[in-house]
Amino acid sequence: MSAARSQLGSKAEKTHAAILEAAEDIFAQKGFAATRLEDIAERVGIRRASLVYYYKDKHELYADVLKSVFGGLYEKLRGSFEKEGPVAERVESMVGAWVDYVIERPSLTRLLMREIADADPKPSQAIMDSVLPFFQMIQKAYIDSAKEIKAMPDPMAALGFSSLISGSTVFFLTALPALSPSNGKFLLTPQQIATHRDGLMQLTRMLFQFGVARSSKPE
User: Fold this and answer.
1) pLDDT per position in the chain (219 positions), as tens?
2) CA dihedral (60, 64, 67, 69) positive or negative
3) 36-53 burial by CB neighbour count: b if 16+ within 10 A, else e?
4) What is the DSSP code string of 84-102?
5) Quick one: which of 122, 76, 102 has its CA closest to 166?
6) 3-state SS class at 118
7) Structurally, what CATH architecture does the domain formed by 1-56 represent?
């Protein structure tokens, strides 16, 4: 490859990365419906026509943003889940990885809140495709734990667990600062984040153990 072609490729990759970064931030701030391709192009410093070179429409760009955000989270959680050790300990490790990831990438919780607020009548297929692997992972954890005690897994336990754990952190990071009487100057401290993480771990132990124990009870 010539130096000129290599330079062009590098420039295109940088532009693509900048588009994804800008789109992630703007979609999280405004939601899908209110975001315009012109807004994203302006943030990147390119024309709208140049942006369309990378993405044919807003739906395609939004799907790629979700793939980037949730794909990164999935890799973090999968790494925790595939470790050696008891299932319950691996689930706790997953919850810790979840908190760490959303602290580093707060756009994830804002994207979820936007989807919930804008849903008519349900979240987009793109977001559903993004979150399904996480429910499946938790479902497998419950199935594996139920097998250990020779019980039938509760099909609703994984959904309830995932909703309570993720909902707690989404509210903590996104809604709580907005509701704080601090004139928009609310900032979460490392101590507050550590307290939330510790509380979530306690909730994880209780919910996961209860879900598995419930599975062992005869109907």
Assistant:
1) 444 444 446 888 999 999 999 999 999 999 998 999 999 999 999 999 999 999 999 999 999 999 999 999 999 999 999 888 888 899 999 999 999 999 999 899 999 888 877 766 666 777 888 888 888 888 888 888 877 766 666 767 888 888 889 989 988 888 777 776 665 556 778 898 999 999 999 999 888 877 666 655 544
2) negative
3) ebebbbeebebeeeebee
4) SS-HHHHHHHHHHHHHHHH
5) 102
6) helix
7) Orthogonal Bundle (1.10)
Amino acid at 209: Q
Q: Length of the chain, please?
A: 219
∠ CA 111-37-55 to the nearest 5 degrees? Answer: 90
The residue extents of the domains of the chain are 1-56, 64-215
Do domains 1-56 and 64-215 share one topology? The answer is: no
What's the CA gap between 184 and 90, in Å, rounded? 37
Q: Which CATH architecture has domain 64-215?
A: Orthogonal Bundle (1.10)
- pTM for the complete prediction? 0.82
The tokens describing 187, both together, are 């900032």
What radius of gyration, in Å, describes the C-alpha atoms of the chain? 20
Q: Which amino acid is at 82?
A: E
Q: Which residue has the tokens 């302006």?
A: 42
